[in-house]
Write a structure and sequence with these properties.
Growth Hormone, Chain: A; transmembrane helix; MFS; transmembrane; MFS general substrate transporter; transport
Length: 495
């Protein structure tokens, strides 16, 4: 009886494989693009909008500062830097736990909860009375926002082949660049409400932007797609096509063995050398990104502009950074090569920081060149994180390992944000020798990590090519290969 049951199961599995192969052939070319377009339309814009809100809500403290927040709250010394920094402590701590919850709870439910939570906290920042209240709100904001970005990255990596991920990540990550542009314009407009109903302009920034986030959070459960299986707008054949291509590409396991959580798998992800290379590269992004996110309005103001002009002039650098992220994402996926799109932006960033440091003492003579350097710095910064995220996620399997590894890369990478928010000291303006010096050091580390990762992955791929697929499948079952994940002889690394 057991033999008959086993035989039926094998026949059923063979039929499923044959059907999947038939569907893959049927959806080649234009049909595949149509299905991907359906996913793009429903997934990427939603994630982009949410990431836009997340970045506006975490960074608008910089806009509030130049509208008088620090003076009204009586901030002294480095208290503003502390308020900016404490956001990242819970943000770092809770990224991995959040992605573990995301694997067990429907993404639409968990992400909606996070969005509503940080929208409420953002609104409460508009009524703080002192430094302690500001710090408390920033801590809670970091806690509530912690899970969104690693969760969003993981969700996107679950829908697309490895060679299709970065341009999608770039599109929604571009929203973080546009958030800088939009935040400045929005803050400029909202600050005009200064005194309305007896409320300061900087308070209106938090109150209005927080309320918008809450409103969006209420409709998010109806917008986020949990999985292909739950997508009512996909036919059964389209669902089969998506799952089959992901299995063929190594993104998804063909057996249940490849998608089981275990503590050995957890520690394997956390201590994976590829993840640590991604973390070091993430530091090279996080240090300058955080520094500019919280100090750019002040740096531009020091070029001789008024507060209102500085708010408006933050828009073009962020806009150019967003365009650079989108272009680099498209090219990286087209050529299936990540390394140049990490090393190239890091070199651009080096040039920009050298200009800002070298000409800082001659501000009046070099206003145009310094502003160009600020733009160039954003062009170098914003392509980095989508490429680092894609490169890391591309080379981690199975699904649980990718979820934990991505969350840890982004969490540990944010230690760079803790540094970036504290190295641009007001007393060192306009040269900011500590800020620029430390940032350049991390950029050099990032370049070395990228070179090391590229060379090592290339060597590992050559080693895997020695054994043919037929020989591998003769030695291992599908369950064993899925359990091996990215260590499987059949798993080829993306360079």
């Amino acid at each position: 009886m057991a033999d008959i049951t086993q035989e039926k199961a094998e026949i059923h599995a063979e039929e499923n494989i044959a059907h999947a192969q038939s569907i893959l052939q049927q959806y080649e070319g234009k049909e595949a693009k149509k299905v991907l377009r359906k996913i793009d339309i429903r997934l990427v814009p939603v994630m982009a909008l949410l990431y836009l809100l997340a970045h506006i809500d975490r960074a608008n403290i910089g806009n509030a500062k130049i509208e008088g927040m620090d003076k009204e709250l009586g901030l002294v010394g480095n208290q503003y830097n502390i308020a900016s920094t404490v956001f990242f402590i819970p943000y770092i701590i809770f990224e991995i736990p959040s992605n573990i919850v995301l694997k067990k709870v429907r993404p639409s439910i968990w992400l909606s909860f996070l969005i509503l939570s940080w929208g409420i906290v953002m609104t409460l920042m508009g009524i703080v009375k002192d430094f302690k209240g500001l710090v408390a709100c920033r801590v809670m904001l970091g806690l509530c926002e912690a899970g969104f970005f690693p969760g969003a990255v993981f969700i996107i990596t679950n829908w697309y082949k490895r060679s299709e991920v970065q341009q999608r990540l770039s599109l929604f990550y571009t929203a973080s660049a546009f958030s800088g542009a939009f935040s400045g314009l929005l803050a400029y407009a909202i600050a005009k409400m200064d005194g309305a109903r007896g409320i300061s302009g900087w308070r209106w920034i938090f109150l209005i932007e927080g309320s918008v986030t809450i409103a969006v959070g209420l409709v998010v459960p109806f917008l986020i797609i949990d999985s292909p299986e739950r997508a009512k707008w996909l036919s059964e054949d389209e669902k089969t096509f998506i799952n089959s291509r992901l299995i063929a590409d190594g993104v998804k396991s063909s057996t249940e063995e490849g998608d089981k959580f275990s503590w050995p798998l957890f520690f394997n992800a956390v201590f994976d050398w590829k993840v640590w290379a991604g973390i070091i590269m993430a530091w090279a992004n996080a240090v300058p990104n955080a520094a500019f996110k919280f100090t750019m309005p002040a740096i531009i103001k020091q070029l001789g502009f008024t507060s209102s002009e500085a708010q408006l002039l933050t828009a073009p650098p962020y806009f150019c950074g967003g365009i650079a992220a989108w272009i680099s994402g498209r090219l990286a996926d087209r050529y299936k090569w990540r390394f140049p799109f990490v090393s190239g932006p890091l070199l651009l960033l080096t040039v920009a920081l050298a200009m800002l440091f070298g000409m800082a003492e001659r501000v009046k003579q070099n206003v145009g060149a310094l502003y160009f350097a600020i733009i160039l710095a954003q062009i170098g910064t914003y392509p980095l994180l989508p490429c680092i995220s894609a490169w890391t996620g591309n080379n981690l399997a199975p699904s649980w390992k990718r979820s934990i590894g991505l969350a840890w890369t982004l969490a540990a990478g944010n230690f760079g944000s803790l540094i970036g928010t504290n190295i641009f000291l007001d007393k060192e303006a306009p040269r900011y020798q500590t800020g620029y010096g430390v940032t350049l050091g991390f950029i050099c580390l990032g370049l070395l990590a990228a070179i090391g990762l590229e060379l090592t992955l290339k060597l590992r791929n050559k080693q895997k090519e020695i054994i043919s697929e037929e020989e591998v499948r003769a030695q291992y079952t599908d369950e064993q290969l899925d359990k091996l994940g990215d260590k499987s002889p059949l798993f080829k690394y993306i360079l």
